[in-house]
Every structure is written in C-alpha cells, then in structure tokens.
Write a structure and sequence with these properties.
This protein has about 350 residues and is an alpha/beta fold. About 35% of the residues lie in helices and about 15% in strands. The strands form four sheets. A seven-stranded mixed beta sheet has the order 2-10-9-8-5-3-4, sandwiched between helices. A three-stranded antiparallel beta sheet has the order 11-12-14. The chain binds pyridoxal-5'-phosphate.
Length: about 350
C-alpha cells in the first residue's frame, strides 16, 4: 500500500527517511548484530546513540550551556505534575495562563501541590484564541509562570511571550517545539512529549535551566525529579531506548533540511496555504481567532456536522487521513508538523476546493 498523508495530531507523521533507516537497521545496527531495541542502555553502542540525540537537540534548539537536556518518560502529562513537584517550593504559588485543554489539565494537576493563580484564560470562549494578559496581574513572587506555547486541540499559538521578569517561564511546547526559532534563554523550562514534532511516543524532552535544579520537594518521586535525572544522565532507570534512537533519526533529517529556521519558513508557507483558502472559502471557516492562529494545527469546520463527517470520510478515501477534529473541539483539524511536506498540504487544499465546489 502507498503511504498516505497523515494529518494526525500525535502520534503524527514522521520523515520517511527516518523510517527507512530504522527499517534497514532493524536487525543489525551498525554491525553490532542486534537491533537497537535489544541493546543494553548501559552499553557503549547505545550510549553513543543517546549522546548523539541529545547533542542534536542542543544544536537544533540552540540550548545554552547552562541548561540541562533530559529525556524522560511519562509524557507531557507527567510533566503537569513534575513542574510543580520540582519548582513549587518557594512561595508555593504559580501563575498559569489557561489557553486550552492541556493548559487546563496542567493547572488542575498543579493545584494538587500548591496555589494556582490563573492570570488569563480563554476557557469561556472555548479557547478560540490566546487570552490577553495584564502584567499587573502577574505575581512577582510566583515560583514560576506557565504557558502552553501551541494549543494542539484548538489550533492556537502565542505570537509573543509574556514578560515575566525574574519569574521563570515554563512552557509546554509539545506541539510546536522545533517548528520555530525560540530564544531558549527566555525560558526557565521548556518541555515536550516527543510524538508530535520530535519522534515517536514514549520520550519526553525537558530542557531546564541549571539554577532551577535542586528545588524539588523531598517527596518528589525520583523518576520525576529533574535534578536526580540530570545527575544520572536521564538514566536513573531504563530509558525508552528505541524511541530515543528514532528521535535521533528524525532530528538528523531535520538538520539536513536546514534546521529549525528553515523549518519555520516552510511551516509558515504551509500554514498560509490553508489559512488563505479558509479566508477565501464560502464553505469552510477557520476556528481559531486570526491573531492566534497556529502553524502546526489548523482547525476549521463547515458549520454542518454531517458535512464535516462527509468531508473527513471522503478525504480519507483520497489518502488524506486523520482530519477529524479533537472530540473537545469538533470539526476538522489538519496537523502539519515538520514532517508533513508542502505537497501534502497542497493536496489537502486541492481536495478542500474540490469538496467546496461540490457542496456549495
Ligand atoms: C499532546 C499534548 C499533551 C499530552 O501529551 P502526552 O505525551 O500524551 O502526555 C500535552 N500538551 C500539549 C500541548 C500537547 O499537544
């Protein structure tokens, strides 16, 4: 069977080149006579794969020297708890912006460990945009300030970052990490589940500034303790060895494409194809407020649920897959991460025009 264009939100499409390399190396990695899956995580061969992957992350994200790069498990959802466990130990209070379901899940989780101050929210508007904030509402004594840089379900993205002064900015960047250039020094912590824009599910990347280590509350499970994990080179226990190897293959591909800046340019072009179409369409309507539009997740609908369902069904038959919106948002969502080629976006746009012509 031919490969389809997969618009899934995560796990998501991956570079074909990475998948092919993995297939070629499946039974015998680099002359070792075994699969990467079968290697000891403490062995030399695996350590080299791990170190290369971390090195690529440092290079591609331009991580400054005073930050640690950790490869953990438990997903982004695990970090909803790890963030307060590691940081909410000074004033015991943190500022959160509630910009989507995952942001909301994170603040509910943090509320188990301390005081959560919601400084801005678009929950009442069904998260149609990034909420406006007023710096006067920020708590200068907060242990950290939390945002979700791209809201995967609703298709919204911060175009500017809040200025939090000396309060460390913590970002869940699960769905837009590596898709645009960020000045990492603006963040105290940036983390992401891998399964959207890094590699396969099973790895969680945490980039943390060193001065934020050593603050975990004593009851923190060691597996969630960034300091202990940093000291152990992310190997307090067995890491997700194969998933990390796959991330490495995807990152090598990304580097060959020209790195994050080149990707950002391509991602802007890809998103523009769909937003231009939506703005011109008399059938499809973009869901996210224009000023908050995501470059990674494009949400749209016809306004008629049956027609939405027909669209998804017909698109699937044409090899344009996984376009159904998240159950919390409805409608359609095209996730167009780094590994989605411009040809896939163009094919979707052509199909949308064709569908519109038949359903005016
Ligand atoms: C997908 C996603 C999550 C959840 O990730 P898991 O790895 O499944 O826990 C959290 N935050 C954002 C922004 C996401 O896109």
């Amino acid at each position: 069977m031919e490969r389809v264009y997969n618009f899934a939100a995560g796990p998501a499409t991956m570079p074909e080149e990475a998948l092919r390399t993995a297939a070629n190396e499946m039974l015998n990695y680099g002359g070792s006579g075994m699969s990467v899956m079968e290697m000891s995580h403490r062995g030399k061969a695996y350590q080299a794969i791990f170190d290369e992957t971390v090195g690529l992350i440092r290079e591609l994200l331009q991580v400054p020297d005073n930050y640690k790069v950790l490869l953990l498990q438990g997903g982004a959802t695990g970090q909803f708890a790890a963030v307060p466990l590691n940081l909410m130990n000074g004033s015991g209070s943190a500022d959160y912006i509630d910009s989507g379901n995952f942001a909301h899940g994170a603040l509910v989780e943090a509320g188990k460990y301390g005081k959560v101050n919601v400084v801005a929210s678009s929950r009442e508007e069904n998260y149609a945009g990034i909420p406006q904030w007023d710096e006067a509402a920020f708590d200068p004594k907060a242990d950290y300030f939390y945002i979700t840089t791209n809201n995967t379900i609703y298709g919204t993205r911060y175009s500017t970052l809040p200025n939090t002064g000396s309060v460390p900015l913590v970002a869940d960047a699960s769905s837009n990490i590596l898709s645009e250039v960020y000045d990492m020094s603006r963040f105290g912590v940036m983390y992401a589940g891998a399964q959207k824009n890094i590699g396969p599910a099973g790895v969680t990347l945490v980039v943390v500034r060193e001065d934020l280590l050593g603050k975990a509350r004593p009851s923190t499970p060691k597996i969630m303790d960034w300091t202990k994990m940093a000291e152990a080179g992310s190997m307090l226990n067995t890491p997700p060895t194969y998933a990390i190897y796959m991330c490495g293959l995807c990152l090598k591909w990304l580097k060959k494409q020209g790195g994050v800046a080149a990707m950002e340019k391509r991602n802007i072009e890809k998103a523009q194809i769909l937003y231009d179409l939506l703005d011109d369409s008399s059938l499809f309507k973009g869901v996210a407020q224009p000023a908050s539009r995501s470059r990674m997740n494009v949400t749209f609908r016809t306004g008629d649920e049956e027609l939405d369902a027909l669209f998804v069904k017909e698109a699937t038959a044409k090899g344009l897959c996984s376009l159904k919106g998240h159950r919390a948002a409805g409608g359609m969502r095209a996730s167009i991460y780094n590994a989605m080629p411009v040809e896939g976006v163009q094919a979707l746009a052509n199909f949308m025009k064709d569908f519109e012509a038949r359903h005016k």
